Amino acid sequence: MAKVYNWQLGRDMEYPYEAGHPDWQFAFVFNTNRCIACQTCTMACKSTWTFSKGQEFMWWNNVETKPYGGYPHNWDKKLLSMLDEENPEGQIWDEEAEQSKEGPYGRFDGKTVFEAAEKRYGPEGQQRVMGYLPSEADWRSPNMHEETATGPSMQPGAWGHSTQLPEHKVWFFYMQRICNHCTYPGCLAACPRQAIYKRPEDGIVLIDQERCRGYRKCVEACPYKKSMYRPTTRVSEKCIGCFPRIEGKDPVLSPDRDPLETRCMTACVGKIRIQGLVKKDREGGWADVPDNPLHYLIRERKIALPLYPQFGTEPNGYYIPPRWVPRGYLVQMFGPGVESAIEQYSCPDRELLAVMQLFRAGQKIIFSYKIEKGPKVAEVEVTMPDGKSKTQEIFNDTVIGQGRDGKELLRVTVEEPTFERDPAHVNSI
After folding, report:
1. How many angstroms separate the CA atoms of 82 and 316, rounded?
2. Share of the chain above pLDDT 70, in %
3. What's the burial of 413, exposed, middle or buried (CB within 10 Å: 0-12/13-18/19+)?
4. Is the pLDDT of residue 244 over 60?
């Protein structure tokens, strides 16, 4: 095992290979507060990549209902239980650890999926990654327990005050998932054929179909269960980050070869998604690019948090946590920083509100933004998570999204324009 630095954990950790980092890293932010579970993203991915024989159960993009839903069933609950059994009561964050640019969430003192595998042995010797192989039943019914709520008052007639913030007494929320294209992928670490690799130009994790022999070690090792075995070809497949779109090879949408967002991102009707490429430095850290919207949301404001960072893979998928869910559940899922993220989202300041307008504003990847200030249009009283009131000032600023070469791709105003349909229109009432 080599020592690599995981900034999400705030410490060095063990990994089977020496650290190697791409020039750019594929990354994304999902806003769980906006998702309506329409599954448009799911079907956009399905109709593009997994519509063939042997791929019937493959949902590279899925939207599941938490806390009971999951695809495969209970994927996170099972692995969390395994880690807790290996390190009883030790899977905790050091809340007193100093937060820094290199470790913005403090330090995780528990065991990652790589460190927890040190004492686990199989027929081929020591395991590289702790994991499990889902059963066929686990892969059935991708929407199992959809919209199934939980809470302390679940008896008929006992629903009073269930929607009072900051935490609902009865709750559920939608979790949108694709491959996180991790910095330290569990699938890559476990593959005995070295058939899995990260592309140096964008960090997208791919499986070499010619080298793969279908051992399903990647399926077992991926903590998010986003590597899947295809029985008709006897090899594993996974989300490919729509890399032809990232390369700008769509002649219709990108005649000038500008990088495009993935299919699931551009199909989102709820405007919950933004995806981009993050510049990495030589040591594998994030280059300081404050006007990159992902850098701003993730590293500067820390409003978007990694999914299960304690697994140790340093996922490149980030989530703005839902504001009505019990905080203990969210901390387990997203780590420390939940309170700060929800507080900022509850009453975003001027710049944050403007940057939030970039979600699903266009199909091309935004590398930088700038804001043109507009007039003040409103003052709104907002109830914060601690119960106190705060006045939010809203300005009709214009946020401009720019491409890799700095040219303007789109502009959006904070105040959405109103369009009146011609009364003579055939569908007018």
Report:
1. 23
2. 97
3. middle
4. yes
Which residues face 410 on adjacent strands? Answer: 401
Phi/psi at 95 (5° precision): -70, -20
Cis link prior to 166 (omega < 30° from 0)? yes
Q: Characterize 310-335 residue by residue with b for buried, 16 or more Cβ atoms within 10 angstroms of its Cβ, and e for exposed.
A: bbbbbbbbbbbbbbbbbeebbbebbb
Candidates 100, 29, 103; CA nearest to 278 is: 29
Quick check: helix, strand or coil at residue 25? Answer: strand
Q: Where are the alpha helices (DSSP H) in 263-359?
A: 263-266, 293-295, 327-334, 338-346, 350-356
Question: What pLDDT, on the 0 to 100 scale, is given for residue 154?
Answer: 58
pTM: predicted TM-score of the whole model, two decimal places: 0.94
d(CA 176, CA 166) in angstroms, rounded, equals 22
CATH of domain 21-148+165-346: 3.30.70.20
Q: In whole angstroms, give the CA distance from residue 280 to residue 160.
A: 50
Would you say 113 and 221 are in contact if contact means Cβ atoms under 8 Å apart? Answer: yes
Strands 398-402 and 368-372: antiparallel
Would strands 227-230 and 235-238 be described as parallel, antiparallel, or unpaired?
A: antiparallel
Which tokens belong to 119?
A: 């004492």
By mean pLDDT, which of 91-100, 193-202, 262-271, 353-362 is the weakest? 91-100
Query: What is the CB neighbour count within 10 angstroms for residue 127?
Result: 20
pLDDT per position as a tens digit, 142-166: 999 999 998 876 555 555 555 677 8
DSSP labels, 105-132? T-EE-S--TTGGGTT-EETTEE-SS---
Under DSSP, the state recorded for 102 is S
**Is the per-residue pLDDT at 78 higher than 60?**
yes
- Around 9, how many Cα atoms within 13 Å sit in the side-chain half-sphere? 25
Pairing of strands 24-31, 62-66: unpaired
Domain ranges (residues) in the chain? 21-148+165-346
Nearest-angstrom CA–CA distance, 4 and 27: 20
Alpha carbons 128 and 149: distance in angstroms, whole number: 37
The Cα–Cα gap between 346 and 166 comes to 10
